[in-house]
Amino acid sequence: MDSDLSSQDRKDLDKFIKFFALKAVQVIVQARLGEKISTCSSSSPTGSDWFNLAIKDIPEVTHEAKKALAGQLPGIGRSMCVEISLKTSEGDSMELETWCLEMNEKCDKDIKVSYTVYNRLSLLLKSLLAITRVTPAYKLSRKQGHDYVILYRIYFGDVQLTGLGEGFQSVRVGVVGTPIGTITLSCAYRTNLALMSSRQFERTGPIMGIIIDHFVERPFTNMAHMHPCSYRSPGEDEGGTYAGIEDSQEVCTTSFSTSPPSQMVVPGKEGGVPQVPAQPNHGTAAEHGRVPSCPNGQSPQPAQPTSCSSEVKTVFCDALETTFTRKVGAFVNKATTQVTTTSLDLPFAAFAPRAYDLEVNDPMVHPPPSPAPSSPLQGSLHSNSSSHSGGQPQDDFVMVDFKPAFSKDDLLPMDLGTFYKEFQNPPQLASLSIDVSAQSMAEDLDSLPEKLAIYEKNIDEFDAFVDTLQ
Amino acid sequence: MCVDISYTIMNCRSEVLEVSVEGRQVDEAMLAVLHTILLHRSTGKFHYKKEGTYSIGTVGTQDVDCDFIDFTFVRVSSDELDRVIRKAVAEFKDALGNSGSDGMGQISLEFYQKKKSRWPFSDECIPWEVWSIKVNVVNLANEQERQICREKVGEKLGEKVINIVEVINRHDYLPKMPTQSEVDNVFDTSLKDVQPYLYKITYQITDSLGTSVSTTMRRLIKDTLAL
After folding, report:
1. What is the distance in angstroms between the CA of the first residue and the CA of the last residue of chain A?
2. Where along the sequence do coiled-coil regions lie (chain B) (predicted)?
């Protein structure tokens, strides 16, 4: 099958597929960070922008992708998948979508690798950029922070779609034929968000004590591979080059030929390929389930964002820690508790005493106050909870009768919650509960002449009534 | 209600998309569709070197949130290109508003190649892909309807993006990569940061009879000549 492909072409093709996979993962994860993404066009090629597209490389994401690939390439029967899921502050989680990069056996022998395949892969990445903003998870990810976060997981092998619930939809991003198989990129996304409409996540507290427990419980071992869609902006120099791929040998082909392919020039290692700055404590990333955390006080590389990328901000603290505030009912005076995902490898980790200091004063750790609190009470609840930060011992839950804001007891003898519950199940109408079998058709017909006689007697009344209507 | 059509005439692929929007959503809906198409039909700047090789610049992208529609689209990072497209969309919107029609019109994005002809004939413009977006402007009565419209139009635009990607992904005809002397016959090289295929944007306003204004004019002229 591969005898027609020259060894140079085969090497190039493998390189393209590898970097396509890495770039696709970057696009998907970055689209779920919850922020608008912006990169600059550059008319002078730098040699590190694969597929002629400016796609930043978040080092942790590249690392995870390479870990999942483990030196292999996506191929026939070996798919690379990025799973996006949602995790609430109560610890429930739900798979939202799975992006699959697969290869099937249909080969296109005549296609030119270094030219057509490369350009089509570039087009496919552009399509991926567009489609990642269109699936339902995009809107959810833009609103993450207070009640939930978006996590990603990269795996290699067989595609698993069972966690997406019934009736999941699929959208195909595109296909690119190559001499060794056809690459397909698609997304399967959950549609059954009815139990979890996006509006629910705009609330800041539980309503009427309803606990959201409709999600698929993930076993904790799986959770260890989930990573929050958040990152620290890598240090960049003014030239607009991006934190590049770690392997400086892998410079992408940016030179094309209008003459026959044999004259193609591949640029060598150009001086501008940046190295990924060494990550502090990154070596511990391999530890199962632990997400590396930066020691307190150590700042990341001096961030010198270029003007066009300044919109990209760090959402959470510089380690891949996600901190959210546990919600309690209104009017509860107890201090709130905080949970981090770093201790997820322990079952019931949320109840274990915390062994380390959280960055109390880091504004990135505490989500900013809710942008539009629905009532002043809930707004103050937020600021109240964010001031009670790390170092507090875990408190027991206190059950409090939830009093909706602004409810007045004197108007109704019962509170809104009970009222609502009662009137959700109203008693059946009396007229509907008449035992129908007691009356037969014959009886109905018998009573008709009597009824007609009465109506005829009162005909004048009826006529007068009709006149008043006209 | 929204029927999307695809057909090919004389090797020119034609795609028709339809959207129904409220008046203030026209700009953003058109920008979303046009930019999504142009994202796929723009490359980095070509730099020709000797020996007949060329290198391609890098295209950046950015997310654009719509104000009147629950939707975010991606466009190429080129303020110049954005200005050109916005200007065309603004003209279209003005024409829609001034036409006094029921608010129906069509904006077309046509990709073409130039074929140089000898004097005295002028250069031919041969289209190879035409995207037509039919717009139907609706009037809404209250804020609740507007809110529903925000979401619905957002969903519809999402479907349009998926349709566009589907068409692009068929990998149908694309002009051959040109030599340095021919590049201006295939690409618009006037922008400094990106290089879209040569394109033109035109629009037609449909009068309330459902016929486009230009068709009516043509018919009038024909009838006059027939007398």
Report:
1. 87
2. none
